[in-house]
């Protein structure tokens, strides 16, 4: 997207959000009242922490880089705080909710607070990790994700839905740091490398605890991923991911040792690594994405 087009799109989003009546977005009192009417409360089972601050959902939509032509998949819409902020700014929202009570109630909430956008909403009652098909070919994933499944969910949707060009998710701050960590850092690991395979990842901001009900014991962070097209054999991804898992599964060991379960004996591993231009005495945390790809490419020739 060109710089001028992006600035224009963001200006349109900001204008729409500024013009939205306050009553269309849900605050703390509305969220609690809605939960009471449904006889439900946030549960640890599904990692539910509902956003109760309208300014936070405005900020998320502004930073999500969405526009009138985009189709957004939202994971875990809960009581609809973010959904209500997204709908006026995109072509369609596909909301995936595992809690059947909340999934059933979401269209009613939209009908009450933003009835003109109800036609632009599709609700799917399902576990996000089981989703293999989605309507409308989503272009973006925007979500407040449960802390315990955030990385697997993002990786699942990147793998299954290549139409998704950009992701903005709110996750636990510590997880956000790991997702966007650079090579060589202490928190660089499996999520960092696997997400980098799909695109450019960066921290897009921090979120305090008091915007949630119930307030979690940790802060949250926004993570953005912009997909990069890779003209590489798709089968290479599976092999590279297995190598990454092995390299960090024994984090303190050298690649010569840690990759044995995937690539063979220490002698075979050492030869393969040298052919790939990698020092066998290095550890996984010292390698960048391109080096992991080089190992996988070399391994594919001999495996």
Using the coordinates shown, work out and report the CATH topology of the largest domain: Rossmann fold
Tell me, briefly, the overall form: elongated
How many structural domains does the protein architecture include?
2
Report how far apart the termini are.
Answer: 40 Å
**What is the annotated CATH architecture of the largest domain?**
3-Layer(aba) Sandwich
* Strand adjacency order, main sheet: 4-3-2-5-6-9-7
Mean pLDDT: 90
Beta-strand content estimate: 15-25%
Helix-strand makeup class: alpha/beta
* Rounded radius of gyration (Å): 21 Å
* CATH homology superfamily of the largest domain: Vaccinia Virus protein VP39
Biggest pleated sheet:
7 strands, mixed
Contiguous helical run count: 13
CATH class of the largest domain: Alpha Beta
Task: List how many beta strands DSSP finds.
Answer: 9
Order of helices and strands: HHEHEHEHEEHEHHEEEHHHHH
Poorly predicted ranges: 16-23
Percent helix, as a range, is 40-55%
